[in-house]
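step 3/5: co-fold with adenosine-5'-triphosphate
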Amino acid sequence: MSMGIMKSLKDNFDKNLNVDIALDFDHFNLRCQFRFDLEGITGILGHSGSGKTSLLRVIAGLNQDAKADVILNGRTLQNRNNFIKPEQRKIGFVFQDARLFPHLTVLGNLNYAFKRCKPNHLDLEEIIHLTQIDALLNRDVLKLSAGEKQRVAIARALLAEPELLLMDEPLSNLDNRARGNMVQLLRNIHQRLSLPILYVSHNIIEIQQLSDDVMVMENGRIIQHGHVHQVLNNLHERITSEISSPTSLTLTVKQHLVNFGLTQLDFIAPHNNQVKLFAPLMNASLGQALRCYILADDLSLSLVKPEASSIINCFCGTVTQLHRLSRNGMMVKVQVMDHTFTINTSRYAVELLRLAHGTEVYIQFQADAIRCF
Ligand SMILES: Nc1ncnc2c1ncn2[C@@H]1O[C@H](COP(=O)(O)OP(=O)(O)OP(=O)(O)O)[C@@H](O)[C@H]1O
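step 4/5: write tokens
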């Protein structure tokens, strides 16, 4: 197995992406300028039509009309005078639909990429195993399920040994269960290959579970870019006009209470008091950091500390924001130390509790409201 060689090669170059793009369609203008170190998975979130696909297409070299400077790992892919063709950019692209070669089997599709990439630093068997397609190799690609097709498409993209992988809504044709499995598979791939990924999705949960950094696009512009928790917990009002994003946290495992079916996670509350935060019992080692989220509908608010309550998680915090979501629905942000919690409640409750910026409140949630990954 050539994992050692793979890893050292991946680590040898400076990984960064430098982009300055101006692209004009009849009714849409894309203007993006950014430079960042390519380390993990960067999620790209935004309403339909905000320009996410257009941005990926320019980076991949699929839109020659764009006025763009694109520099990947110090290599100029495009500027006023140069245009490197898509197949020479060392950028992989996985689309919403798998786009496999229909006349080839699964193995034929993989070999197409593998044989064109010389010398090979990746091990074909390893990639087949990593993408869980061992049992599919001789199958006709037209007879695969949507999830199977996407796994083959990912394997094929990896075998071309890209320096950057672009993924455009790769899981949108899958049901919830297949989507969950694919998120885990993508995390494994990323961990094993250290391959930077730009990952476009409408699905905030998918972005929360996969991304280290998140960019938010609106109307052809990047309006937010930063660490996943920081961006998702403070999503721009225009993006959260109809939905609330989940509270996004990284928490470490403190202890397992096997008899109660609970796992205690580390959480620092006001005045530096360590308070107990419980999640459902999970198979994770002590000290392991977990990506966690809580849906806004799963939290409730109280003005007084509930002394005797069956809801076992309760923290004191301060209201920092109130935002009307619908005719009767409100979104409330509560700051608890460094953590911002997002709670959905009714306009009636906000008036009843006289909630305002600065109100001290207690947030409550059940153990199974916290979902960990
Ligand atoms: N070839 C084209 N010619 C003219 N307009 C285009 C072209 N491609 C995209 N657009 C327009 O550019 C805008 C951005 O499209 P884009 O596909 O980049 O958005 P998106 O954020 O990826 O949307 P979605 O999430 O629905 O896929 C849209 O208004 C779209 O109609």
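step 5/5: annotate
The chain is about 25% helix and 35% strand.
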